[in-house]
Amino acid sequence: MRLRPTPRGWALAAAGVVALQVGIGLGSLDLVRIGLLLLALPLVALVVALTLDATRGRRGLDVRRVVTPDPVHAGQEADVRVEIRATDRAGRARLAGLRFSEQAAVELSGGRALRARVVRHADRATVRYPVRATQRGRWPLGPLVVTRTDTFGVVRSRRTLGEESQVAVWPAVATLPAPSDVLVGEPDRVALGARTPSTDDANLRDYREGDDLRRVHWRSSARRGSLLVRSDERAGMRPVTVLLDLPVRASSAEWTISLAASMALAMLDNGHPVRLAGAGISTGDRPGASPFVHARSGPESRAALLDLTLDLAPARSAAEGESALLDAVRVLGTHHSAGEIVLAVLGPLTASARGALAHLGDQAQAWAVVREDARHTGDARDTHVTATALQRAGWRTARAGSGEDLLACWTRLLGSAR
Asked: Nearest CA to 248 among 315, 303, 313?
């Protein structure tokens, strides 16, 4: 708790000292009494401020903060509602006369003071204000700062109340069109075992990585000793891996994450099981690639994919970024699924990285957006060399400048198949 005299308090204290000195010098008892009274007033106000401390006691004031929506996408606004409720009579006394303000990370406030609307009732007060998320990540919000000034306006107390919250900010994403007509045509679906739906569509096949575990036929699996899944009209949806190559430059990294997340959501919405792969992906026991997420979970599946991007960070060096990319490629080469589709957002690559990705293209249907940062004169040449090498290895590629419109990049990539 911080207690500090107001300008009026300092003035009264100074006047009290002067009156006391003058009274003693002139032998005036009245001036001495006035000086003592002026000095006593700030001290009494200090005691009162300590007595009415908003955070004293265990059940005086209860603070609850709700952020809607949470998580929020970068570039969007969220509404914050903070409710301060008095739980007893002492709490009501402390609540009266309090002024409220909130602390927020620069990524939520934009470095500006938050403008809040306060609604007061006898037993509670509600503080509401908007925040605008400017950057992907997890950012602190709060705690609530309460300020009280005594009745005479000579002492001001300031203290935090409640706990700090965290607001999760997903990357900015674009709604991309469903690509089923290009990436997975009817011949592919037939080859993968998909058939026209029927009333008795319960044929069984071996489990493949990426299949929804809810489709496992446990009785038949127990008899055979290996996992079997039901094969129906959705069984032919190819698993999709979205591979991220994060650069050193922060703005390029954010653009890469946004494009990769948008592509992943487009494929998920089209019914494919999807996973992310790359540096910093939270994967449990398998570094480099996350487990597949299935569209059957609805909004929860989208949230699960986007949550994987929250803690991603740009590479500290180009060598570190390429090393992480190669690690992810090795994992994909070991744990790939039959008929898998690989979508990648890549930067200019060295010869060794191009070779590793070329090998990955032999095992899966591979598509890549090759990023050009345009920071150096050789970037365009390196991007061209990378895109050409991948095309020779069977990849479908499209070149894009960092910061380019996401929908335009996706459309160009799909158009590379025609």
From this structure: 315
Tell me which residue has tokens 């204290």.
Answer: 13
For residues 184 and 203, state if they share a domain.
no
Please tell me whether the peptide bond between 7 and the residue prior to it is cis, using omega within 30 degrees of 0: no
- The range of the structural domain enclosing residue 82 comes to 61-170
Residues 331 and 312 occupy one common structural domain: yes
What angle is formed at CA 138 by the lines to CA 129 and CA 299, rounded to 5 degrees?
85
Asked if residue 56 belongs to a domain, the reply is: no
Same structural domain, 165 and 282 = no
pTM: 0.78
Closest by CA to 52, choosing from 41, 44, 40, is 44
Give tens-digit pLDDT for 222-266: 888 888 776 544 445 788 999 999 999 999 999 999 999 999 999
**Secondary structure of 179-208 as H, E, C letters:** CHHHHCCHHHHHHCCCCCCCCCCCEEEECC
Count Cβ atoms within 10 A of the Cβ of residue 232 and give its class: 0-12 exposed, 13-18 middle, 19 or more buried.
middle
